[in-house]
């Protein structure tokens, strides 16, 4: 199924993100593999918005805006 699909990473410089693109960051589990993802939306001009500060499945938190380089993992 879809949940079994691996994350595909796009190396920096290969493609420029467009406003509205989703950035997905895999969340590590205690065991092998991944158990979920954190998502952000690209706004343009190198900025991403995402929800941070929530715990568990609670939707509480704040919307944060960061530069793309702050969230990219290389």
From TrEMBL:
Residue segments, region Disordered: 55-74
InterPro entries: Papain-like_cys_pep_sf (IPR038765)
Gene3D superfamilies: endopeptidase domain like (from Nostoc punctiforme)
Compositional bias ranges of the Basic residues kind: 65-74
Protein name: NlpC/P60 domain-containing protein
Species of the source: Tauraco erythrolophus (Red-crested turaco)
Lineage: Eukaryota, Metazoa, Chordata, Craniata, Vertebrata
